[in-house]
Amino acid sequence: MNQLKSFFLFCSGVDRDMLDRVPTEENKYLGIGGTIFFTGVMAFLSAGYAMYTIFDSYWLAVVFGIIWGLMIFNLDRYIVSSMKRTRGFFSNLAVALPRLGMAVLLAVVIAKPLELKIFGKEIEAELIVMEQEVFQEQEAVIRDRYADRMTAYAGELASLRADLEEKTAARDAAQAAALAEADGSGGSRIRNMGPIYRAKQQAAADAQAELDATRATHEPLIEEKQSQVAVLRSAVDREIAELERGDYGGIAARISALDRLSQSSRAVALAVLFVTLLFIAIETAPIFTKLIAPAGPYDHLLAEYEHGFAAEAEDTIAVRSARLRNRIRYHTEVGVYETTADIAEKKAEIDARLRQRRQELGEQDFGLG
Question: In this structure, are 30 and 105 located in the same domain?
Fold first, then answer.
């Protein structure tokens, strides 16, 4: 039990020596440490599931999950332990806001893979629908590639068949007219095989000849076009059969499926929102605890300890600054004095040379006179 307590206190980032001096604060930091630990555990599960979905390997999932979980655990521990209370609520809020933003971001990242696992059955059903849609789109692309040629061949076939039907209808009409003239049911209404009948019979024979000629030219073309259409259809079927129909269920597809479910079902959307809010609440709980809880003995002791270091540092800096100013002043004044003395000495030398020069000039003038 003591080892577990020590571990949770380590997770909270608290200073054990200071906490031993204020044992009443122990429970608060035990709760904070437990929250940070379980956040790391959920991060491990989240990353492990995401890696297993991507690579389908337990070893990679476990290794990456441990790395990610430890990283989130360390980051949460730092965020909470680095948050120092100051005087005033708004000052504390200003300190907490960046940390809250980071905590919310981490919560969203951790929550998403676990949401995919929680709604796994619904996502699997939606993935089947999405897979069929993808396959239909792929088939539609292939069919569209051949659609223009298929349409052209279909139009040519329709034109050839329409021409044959037209010639057949003309032949049938001519034969019916000749038969009606022969039996008196049409035409002149006189039953005989006279010249009118023979003329109509000749017209029927001409129509039959024209139909035969048209069949002789069109039927090979129709067979050729039908063969070409069959070749295109065979090519379409072959390319559709050669499509790669791999497993459709990567992490991106699952996220997309969950998004589609959220858009189509208000219940799913609310459930996803509540799961995300739950993780945000868990991730931000330690920060809110330190933000809204009144400053305790540990906070005062820590502030006193840090203030002592700050005061000592300021005192050391002040002493060193004074020494530096004195040293600068000393060197400055000594330099000024030395410079002044050098100038006075130089002036005396110049005056002596000038006096000597005047004396020499005076003696020269006296000798000439």
Answer: yes
